[in-house]
Amino acid sequence: MASITSLVSALFLALCLKGLQYLHLIKWNPIGFYKKWELFEGSSKLFQWSFFILLLFIIGFLLFITLRYVYIIPAILSSFLLGLFLTITLEWIALDLPLQLSSFKKLSIPFMVVVICLLRFLLETANFHQREHTAQKGN
Q1: DSSP for 50-87?
Q2: CA angle 20, 111, 38 (to 5 degrees)
Q3: How far is Cα of residue 123 from the mean position of the Cα atoms in its chain?
Q4: What is the pTM assigned to this prediction?
Q5: Residue 88 in contact with residue 116, Cβ under 8 Å?
Q6: Using one digit for the tens of pLDDT, what is the confidence trace for 58-103?
Q7: Residues 32, 23 contacting (CB under 8 angstroms)
């Protein structure tokens, strides 16, 4: 179940990132790190996006596996805090922002909302399956 949930979340996040980039709601390219790190420069965009989705799948799978043991903390709180931390960190690195208070105005709120919603989806599903597993173990 973790693999299906992670795959759906990776595909949805990649689609949302492409949409946010197309609508100019984020000021960075989701697969722009390939140029920065000089990876897969000669390959097609389809391969670059496919590899990006694979990376998102692996990250989602690891989050699903590790965060299912945190079912004591409400998923809304943990997804909100983790989502804010992740999005602010990612955009800070992607945009190369200085450590100033005015830099917060350059962060993308739609990107934050998408990541927080996807983390909530992952956490709620992980919590549900952990409780289900615990209930079956008790029987």
Answers
A1: HHHHHHHHHHHHHHHHHHGGGTTS-HHHHHHHHHHHHH
A2: 70
A3: 12
A4: 0.85
A5: no
A6: 999 998 888 877 777 888 888 899 999 999 888 888 777 777 777 7
A7: no
Angle at 44 between CA 43 and CA 48, to 5 degrees: 85
Give the Cα separation of 92 and 20 in Å (integer).
17
Backbone φ and ψ of 39, nearest 5°:
-115, 140
- Whether the CA torsion 94, 52, 125, 21 is positive or negative: it is positive
Cβ atoms of 26 and 111 within 8 Å: the answer is yes
Q: How many CA atoms lie within 13 A of 20 on its CB side?
A: 22
Whose tokens are 């694979």? That residue is 54
- Give the three-class secondary structure for 31: coil
